[in-house]
Amino acid sequence: MSTAPSALPLLALRITAGPVELRGITDDLLGLIADLALDIHDPDFMPFFGPWSLSSPQDMPRVVAQYYWGLRASFSPAKWSADFAVFYEGELAGVQGFAATDYLILRTGETGSWLGRRFQGKGIGTAMRQVICAFLIDHVGARHIASAAFADNPASLAVSRKTGYADNGSEPFNRMGKPATLRRIVLEPASLVRYQHPLTVDGLPPFRKSIGLEEETARLSRTVRCFALSEPLTPHLPGQARPVAVERGFRGICRPAHPVFQRASRFA
Ligand SMILES: CC(C)(COP(=O)(O)OP(=O)(O)OC[C@H]1O[C@@H](n2cnc3c(N)ncnc32)[C@H](O)[C@@H]1OP(=O)(O)O)[C@@H](O)C(=O)NCCC(=O)NCCS
């Protein structure tokens, strides 16, 4: 029988590292997340792009549930979000997310996170960011991980810096009708500062399939095999006729040094 996690494997994905556990957000967690979201920050400071965190206690359960139901409803390999409930020593502490568009082509996306106020300032924000970045780089092949925070959010910027992100410019942003400065940051895999505990991932193969990675690996393997059967891997020198397989549109994919090729062989 088909279940919610078999329809959307994100719901059964679990990433554990020491006291930190990231779990796909199932319906039974929505009420707990809504309760936690009632106290994230002072009302006169807005860390998010929209003021959802100022919802009233009456509205918050609906606001939270509709947001995650909406992400589930629109999940596809072309555009997906992986949001996780963060547990620290078994207690729900906040949410860590990652959103990507055209991931199969770009291998990039943006992280976002929050903690209930009583969990802030204890190193949990740094830990959960280091964990999700290691997951994205090691298990789903991310090549860049972007993030952004307002210039007046030093805790978020410190977490990014401590995870290895580098500055990537800034831009003006209309924050609730007033100008604010949004600082963009980006993490390259080689710069990742890893969490002190190793990761254990449950539910990875179906999740990879749900974002199109296994299909892509299979397609690349077929392409590489087709190329290997039809053409020797000789370099193409200027002035020479291009190899037949390259002329047929396999440009870039079949070169052994191409990162997509290397990634395909790693996951094959
Ligand atoms: C941003 C957030 C996720 C960070 O998580 P956290 O657990 O509080 O952060 P950590 O304890 O891991 O680390 C915070 C770092 O910021 C630093 N920091 C905190 N406030 C600071 C301030 N006012 N000035 C300078 N540095 C500050 C801390 O010193 C710490 O660095 P250190 O360990 O080197 O001392 C959390 O505070 C939060 O949820 N805030 C509200 C929502 C939010 O801002 N979300 C992010 C939107 S972009």
Q: What structural category do the secondary elements indicate?
A: alpha+beta
N-to-C order of helices and strands: HEEHHEEHEHEHEEEHHHH
Query: Stretches where pLDDT falls below 50 for ≥5 residues?
Result: 230-268
Count of individual helical segments: 10
Assigned CATH class of the largest domain: Alpha Beta
Tell me what portion of residues adopts beta-strand conformation: 25-35%
- What's the overall geometry? globular
CATH topology of the largest domain: Aminopeptidase
**Helix proportion:** 25-40%
How many structural domains are formed by the residues?
2
Output the CATH homologous superfamily of the largest domain.
Gcn5-related N-acetyltransferase (GNAT)
Mean pLDDT: 86
Examine the secondary-structure arrangement and name the CATH architecture of the largest domain: 3-Layer(aba) Sandwich
Q: Oligomeric status of the shown chains? A: single chain
Whole-angstrom Rg: 21 Å
Number of strands: 9
Strand order of the largest sheet: 7-8-6-5-4-3-2-1-9
Description:
The protein folds into two domains: 4-211, Aminopeptidase (3-Layer(aba) Sandwich); 214-267, no CATH class. Helices cover 37% and strands 25% of the residues. It contains ten helices and nine strands. It has a nine-stranded mixed beta sheet with strand order 7-8-6-5-4-3-2-1-9, with helices on both faces. A hairpin with a 2-residue loop joins β3 (79-88) and β4. α5 (124-139) crosses α6 (154-163) and α8 (213-230) crosses α10 (259-267). The model is unreliable at 230-268 (pLDDT under 50). Bound molecules: coenzyme A (COA).
